[in-house]
Amino acid sequence: MEAEIGIIGGSGLYSLLENPSETEITTKYGKPSSPVSVGEIEGRKVAFIARHGKKHTIPPHKVPYRANIEAFAQLGVTRVITTNAVGSFVKAYRPGDFVFMDQFVNMTHGREDTFYDKDEVVHISTAHPYCDALRKHAIDVAKKQNIPFHGTGTIVVVNGPRFSTKAESMLFRTMGAQVINMTQYPEVVLAREREMCYSGIGMVTDYDAGLEGENGIAPVSHAEVAMTFANNVEKVKKLIYGLIPEVPRERTCACKEALKGAKI
Fold it and tell me: What are the structural domains of the chain?
């Protein structure tokens, strides 16, 4: 079984593929978060993994990130598209808006975040961690579909599973970041170590705690996040359905040579 494009997502995206085949994959890093579903979208072979498990039982700090990306690698995936609920530090990034990330700030700890922790020393460049080519295709599709979006965004990735304090949120805002999430790291870096193109599509579900009190903004709650995401899941699906046919079969971006010069 093979696939060209891998999608990692959460609730509401399990029905993304038509007539998928589900397979259990075991990697040297363990099993992925869920069985891998493989099917087609617009004639392209696509694999899907439920990041938090099919019943959303895996918290962000326990997601088997290495196993997820390695499972895609075993299937031949060269491009990874991910969807994420994100909180906003900036009023202009409103709940319901989409964000196509281009930078991250890692504030997680204790996560296994490299494939090269034995035998080889590799210094992968993450100056530009997200695939610009995929991001530009996503922007074009969002324009066609009249989806409110932001073409760039710096995301702060925290360990979770708790939400940030107001003080933490205000600190992250001073870094120049626009959004926050618990799962983009180390997913994006691991994909780069496997020389995959990686696109992070964030959907703003709430304003983070640092904006509490401004214009009646309340502290973030999981109920608010879940409700906003559920209300917009069809937009996420529509975007992905529109994006996949636009992705060229041949890669011309630098992602395919990410390891060039990185190995000692």
Answer: 5-257 (3.40.50.1580)
